[in-house]
Amino acid sequence: MNGIPAIGISIHKPGDEPYQDTEMDILSGRRIDLEILDYIPEIKGNPQAMEVIAQLAAKLPDMEIDGKMSEEMEARVWEKKP
Q: How many domains does the chain have?
């Protein structure tokens, strides 16, 4: 297969149709893209989504991070590191 491995996030609001979900790939290849979160406030403002992103960054420390990690997120990542 000639695909690039990716991990995405999907935010679904109860009562909305699935096509209205907010989705993005947070990890693509060997990069975690935090820059794009500035353009997707539905994900950046969702505490559960940000928690999952912090867990992902903690579990995959070899990934390169695009963008700047906030101090709060960096603290969460350090809490979750094995």
A: 1
What does the alpha-carbon distance between residue 80 and residue 76 come to, in Å, rounded to a whole number? 6
Q: Which residues contact 57 (CB under 8 A, 6 or more apart)?
A: 32, 63, 65, 69, 73, 77
Q: How confident is the model at residue 1 (pLDDT cuts 50, 70, 90)?
A: low
Render pLDDT for 37-60 as a digit per residue (tens, 0 to 9).
999 999 999 999 999 999 999 999
Task: Kindly state whether residue 1 falls inside one of the protein's structural domains.
Answer: no
Spell 22-61 as b/e; 16+ CB within 10 A means b: bebebbbeebbbbeebeebeebeebeebbeebbebbeeee
Q: Which domain holds residue 31?
A: 6-80
Beta bridge partners of 37: none
Rounded to whole angstroms, the Cα distance separating 45 from 18 reads 20
